[in-house]
Amino acid sequence: KLMNTIVTRLFFFSTALFLTPIPLRLQAKLLGNIAVFFYCFNSYYRRICRINISRCFPQKSEQEIERLCKKIFYSMGVGIAEALSTWQMSNERFNRIKVYPHGIENLELLQAKNKGVIIYTSHFSSIELIGRKMFGLCGAKVMYKKYSNSTFDQYVLRRRERYVDCIEKSNIKKTLSSLKKGATLAYLPDQNVPDRNRSSFIFESFFDIPCAISCGVKRLPEIPGALPIFCYYYR
Asked: How much is the pTM?
């Protein structure tokens, strides 16, 4: 455990030292290509990605699946660069990153009713950047899941809480209390969770494949006065 803590801290110290001064565009290209290299030489994750893509897109050829898998890993690498920038950049540098919101007036209309608002959104690879840009801007609290590595979890949580209030997803009491007090809550439901947790999940179709979705997707809007709204974002 001590070695794990030391390695994790060294990793983030090195990324902060060497990557932070580099413009985000160059960081994204560097880590995107490293992720593709990782895909080519890691058979375990390559196999997982290819199985998932082939099931979602059975009509695609082997060559098309291979190209799409590499694009996915490249996007994950870009997402890591965005996350590191989100956690480490000063406000002055971070504000130079452009985000173009559409329909935010719909959220403001709900917030004006002084009731709890639930923003439903997804786990896309730009979520850390969007979290600082948008959720912090609209005053939303964000539900999050703890990482298994406690050192990494504390590192990420400390940086997230500089711009947004975080609620651990198992803290139901704080979640309900916040909504009843009129807070705006960003909810990012996971899907297809491990078998041991599926008693609290429902199954819905995703690419015609049954996937386990948290019951919270259905239950949170049932809280008296809570108003749901959907948020979609893309790079």
From this structure: 0.81
